[in-house]
Every structure is written in C-alpha cells, then in structure tokens.
Design goal:
Distance between the termini: 29 Å
Shape: globular
Structural class: alpha/beta
Helix content: 40-55%
CATH architecture: 2-Layer Sandwich
Oligomer: single chain
Number of strands: 5
Order of helices and strands: EEHEHEHEH
C-alpha cells in the first residue's frame, strides 16, 4: 500500500509513510484516519515520511494536501528530493492556514522539533 499509518507508542506519535505513486485521495484517507486516532487517543504529533514517494508532489497537490491537514495536530514531514521552492510553498501555505507544519531532510530533526525526545 502506498500510504500507511501506525501509532509509534515509544514516541507517542503517529507515523505516516507515503511511498510510490501515492495520490492526494490516498493522503486524504490517511489524514482522516489520523484525525480519528487523535479523537480516540489524543495523539496530536505526526511524523510523515514522504522520502519514498516516486516523485515530489506538484504545487496543486501540495496546496490540496495542506487543505486536508487537521489544525489540531502538529506535522513533521520528511522529504528527500523536493526543491527548496516546494518546501517553502508547503510551509508557507500551511502557515497561512494556521497549521503547525515543518519539512525536514533528517528524521531526528523532525522528532526534536515535535518535542518527542
């Protein structure tokens, strides 16, 4: 499956993995599930690993992705081959929507930013 979600009990966070040709529709479903986990378990910190996506999302996909993010949660997104322009676009759109989102190249940096260490 191109998108999966797990609860990392050790960190007290949700972990979402996106791989291959995961579509915006799959992202939407997994984010809906993350909100359900938040409402049942109170887990508000999310690690999104997008390093295994077949290609970086385009601007429209990034815009739609931020529209789907629940505002009650904090998201650290791990990437590998995105342009600086795409990173800035995602973070700016998220910020303008009042979301707590940051993009990282290193997993440990995102974990630290979420305050999970």
């Amino acid at each position: 499956m191109p998108v999966k979600i797990d609860v990392n009990k050790e960190l007290g966070a949700l972990e979402i993995c996106m791989a291959g040709d995961a579509s915006v529709f799959e992202w939407k479903g997994i984010l809906r599930r993350s909100l359900d986990i938040y409402s049942r378990q109170g887990i508000a910190k999310v690690l999104i690993d997008a390093r295994k996506l077949a290609r970086p999302p385009n601007a429209i996909e990034l815009f739609e992705f931020t529209r789907m993010l629940p505002g009650v949660m904090q998201f650290a997104i791990f990437i590998s081959n995105w342009s600086d322009k795409d990173i800035l676009f995602l973070e700016t759109v998220a910020y303008n929507r009042g979301l707590n989102v940051k993009v990282f190249h290193k997993r440990n940096d995102g974990i630290e930013w979420l305050g999970l260490v």
